[in-house]
Amino acid sequence: MQPNTYYSGGPPSYECQDQGPLGDESKRIQNVISPPPQSTVVTVTHNISPVQDHVVWSTFNMAYMNFCCLGLIALVFSVKSRDRKMVGDMNGAVSYGGTARSLNIAATVLSILLIFIAIILVVTGVIRSSYGVH
C-alpha cells in the first residue's frame, strides 16, 4: 500500500511490512501532513475596580440627614460622577465620586452628632418640653 500523503482527519494507518526495525516507517511519517495548529486567544484585562458614585448614600443623606445641605451637594456630585462614568471619563468619575464620598461622610457624622447632642440636652433638662412648663 502507498503511504498517506494527506491528512485524513484521523490517526495515520500503519500497515505491517517486514522492512526492518524502522524500515519505511520514517518515510511514511514524513509524508503525513500535520493539521494546522489550533490557536487560543486569551484576553487579559487590568484589574479595574468599578467606580463608586455613592448615589444611594447621597439620596439617603439628602432625605434624612441633610445637615447644612451637605446631602444635597453630595447628591449633585454623585450624579456628576455617574454621568462621567457613562461618558467613559473614569478620571472625572473617580474625582466626583471621591468628593461625593467625603461630603456624605461629613453629612452623616455631623447629623449623627447633632442628634446625639439634642438627646443629651433633652435628658439633662437643658431643653424642656412644652408640657412641663405649664
TrEMBL record:
Keyword Transferase: no
Protein localization: Membrane
Membrane spanning residue stretches: 63-81, 102-127
Region span, Disordered: 1-27
GO terms under cellular component: plasma membrane
UniProt KW keywords: Membrane, Transmembrane, Transmembrane helix
Pfam families reported in the protein's UniProt record: CD225
Top-rank taxon, per record: Eukaryota
Main location: membrane
Nucleotide-binding is among the record's keywords: no
PANTHER family: INTERFERON INDUCIBLE TRANSMEMBRANE PROTEIN (PTHR13999), INTERFERON-INDUCED TRANSMEMBRANE PROTEIN 3 (PTHR13999:SF4)
Family membership: Belongs to the CD225/Dispanin family.
Protein name (Swiss-Prot/TrEMBL): Dispanin subfamily A member 2b-like
Annotated organism of origin: Pelobates cultripes
